[in-house]
Amino acid sequence: MNTLKLRDYTGKALSECTILELYNAALALTQDACRNRGYNSGKKKVYYISAEFLIGKLLSNNLINLGIYDDVKAELAEAGKDITELEEFEYEPSLGNGGLGRLAACFIDSLATLGLPADGVGLAYHCGLFKQSFEDRKQHMRPDYWRKWGMANWMKRTDKHYKVQCGDLELLSTMYEIDVTGYGSKCGRLRLFDLDTVNEGLIGSGIGFDKKEIEKNLTLFLYPDDSDEDGKLLRVYQEYFMVSNAAQLILDECVERGSNLHDLADYAAIQINDTHPSLVIPELVRLLTEKGIEEKEAYQIVTDVCAYTNHTILAEALETWPKHFFKAVVPHLMPIIKRMNDAVKAKYEEPSVQIIDEYGNVHMAHMDIHYSHSVNGVARLHTDILKETELNNFYKLYPEKFNNKTNGITFRRWVIECNPELTELITEKIGEGWKTDARQLEQLIPYAEDETFLQCILNRKNTKKHKFSAWIEQYQGDKVDPESVYDVQIKRLHEYKRQQLNLLWAIDRYLHIKDGYRPRRPVTVFFGAKAAPAYVIAKDIIHAILAFSSIVNNDPEVSPYLKVVMLRNYNVSMAEKLIPASDISEQISLASKEASGTGNMKFMLNGAVTLGTMDGANVEIAELVGEDNIFTFGQSSEEVIEHYKNADYVAKNWYKKDKRLAAAVDFLVSEEMLEAGDRKLLKQLYDELLGKDWFMTFPDFESYCKTKDKALAAYEDRMGWAKKMAVNIAKAGYFSSDRTIDQYNNDIWHLEKDC
Ligand code: CR1
Fold it and tell me: Which Enzyme Commission number(s) are listed (predicted)?
């Protein structure tokens, strides 16, 4: 029974409160409710260390998980206030970037829900990534000052401080905590470290700042521009600061719980989320030996405690740091890393598995693999590629370490919170059980034949489409026809994700309409993406989309049939609005390159049908829903890997033999485009595609167009489409992060549940 009332936190009638007062009251109430629940505890705890936690807004999610959302909503309504006003008022935390960070957020939700003792550990960035706007049809970046209004209050300052030594520089950290509520369970915590001396005043124009002043800039931004030497050094400082704090916290807590350090693995499991936290390994060795443990034994302890998750095979993301960086930032770790490398060398001569290569570069992933007991990929195909190709030499050494953990998403945020309309419909049919046991969604399968149910699904989708259309008009002025097909690609901007392929399709359709073709139903193509500050081609793709959208949307001959909308500052909150309204889920990465994807799972759960390549978790989605309920196209991952191996792909040959493709590509530098956009940027993109097209857009163009046409035609059979929606929803249960976390726990961490 909930006895907490908002009224007790305001000191006056709710009807007389400002929105900020109501918000702060709701926040205080949530924090009390959380404290009343208590925190999951136990002898062994998992520490999920991650550079990102893309947690999204907190209020509604916490109220739902604490089971008091309806009470608070009703109390507000009685006072003539609408809870959605509070939801809109809330500002989204900026502590993450993309899938890796959102996965970490879903995981801490599931950890709390499943009753597993766990902390997320990371950094308390002041401005996170950046806030995106569009000026002159280009991406502009401003600092995202999210720690304002009530938001900073979610993050409680603690009196925990640790010394972190970086060469001559001594830093003193402060730990902050954010409560993580579980669904109907006790809570967990996110522990974020900051430096009191960091100074937001250092930020100059845009997101520029003096990269040398570490004490003032350390936690200003997530992934500060590392295209120069100072930027790279700053990243190493950040990474070391994060893990040194983590390591000290972990040892302190484990000793408190009774560990004598020799038995650390009985008290702690550390999950290294990609390579950003990899320095935790030598740092732990350093601290353990400082406390009197022999270095050899320390290696074993660390190996037993640590587990590593790989999230990508893209070379650029597999961190390697020249030795001199480490000598500058962590001179005291370098001899340890060197001895760890010597120990590897003594056992294995193969050059490709060394931690320090012949040029003196330190390979973070290699250190992780040698000194962890588990190495996992994030979808079956991805793990297979790691084993058979990318990390094959390591797999041969340690087959027992490799395992797969297909990603998942929390259903609390990704349907219960963001799609109450669909949630209600599902619950009406199969009861509440699916909310804690997602596989029960399969009970919906028989309803895929029930026309009344199918009509209900269509109606609810329609409601969401209308809502989104109203919202987007108010947010950025775009008028979207709710009767159009919502065709959506929202994710970080990267050439391998191939937003450019989708753009080429849109151009092709535009050219057809100009030629007199009149589609039966309009399509709205939505893009939402941020490009990394130093990623030139990604920014060029955004520019091309914006320039093209201005042409299409302002052409009265075309716009009744085709619209292109580039969403400004795409973030979690926007995804929560758009995914429930989406019809087609664009998952069109070059096969083998998208480790998993998690957006694909969110769309499926909300009844959007996937148009995708056989990549990442799409493969598992296809297997679950069957070929009638997904649209797949393009080269297979084997073919792609073979082309890379033989280096035999020549973009120009495809351009020469496919007229439709050539026309779309040429349009990028047509008069219309050059009038709407910047010649240099458009030409740069055009040249990149024709001269390189590293992610093989051209060979997949024809099958993409054909398959998209097929999907659009299928959409016209409304009952047939609704059936696909129903099957997708019913089969989405597998992708609950509760399942994923259960597997991590059973196979890797072995924690006892506190419930
Ligand atoms: C992958 O690109 C995956 C997430 C979470 C991303 C994406 O396919 O779903 O991780 N990788 O596992 C990443 O951000 C730095 O690497």
Answer: 2.4.1.1
d(CA 576, CA 434): 20
Parallel/antiparallel/unpaired status of strands 306-309 and 45-49: unpaired
- Give tens-digit pLDDT for 273-318: 999 999 999 999 999 999 999 999 999 999 999 999 999 999 877 8
Q: Any idea of the CA torsion for 392, 398, 400, 404, to the nearest 10 degrees? A: -40
> Which of 52, 312, 602, 744 is the pocket-test mutation for ligand 1 (most atoms within 8 Å of CB)?
312
Per-residue pLDDT tens over the stretch 334-357: 999 999 999 999 999 999 999 999
CA 562 to chain centre: 29
How many A from CA of 311 to the centre of ligand 1? 5
User: What whole-number distance in Å separates Cα of residue 410 and Cα of residue 438?
Assistant: 10
479-718 and 41-56+97-405+740-749 share a CATH fold: yes
Task: Single out the residue of 625, 587, 616, 634 nearest to residue 384, CA to CA.
Answer: 616
Q: Where along the chain do its domains lie?
A: 1-37+58-91, 41-56+97-405+740-749, 479-718
How many angstroms separate the alpha carbon of residue 329 from the centre of ligand 1?
27
Pairing mode of beta strands 131-135, 138-142: antiparallel
Of the candidates 754, 737, 732, 743, the residue with the CA atom closest to the CA atom of residue 110: 737
What's the CATH superfamily of 41-56+97-405+740-749?
A: Glycogen Phosphorylase B; (3.40.50.2000)
Catalytic residue among 57, 211, 563, 602: 602
Classify residue 158 as exposed, middle or buried by CB count within 10 Å of its CB (0-12, 13-18, 19+): exposed
Those residues with Cβ within 8 angstroms of residue 716's Cβ, 6 or more apart along the chain or in another chain: 520, 521
Largest CA distance in the chain: 80
Q: Which ipTM was obtained for this model? A: 0.99
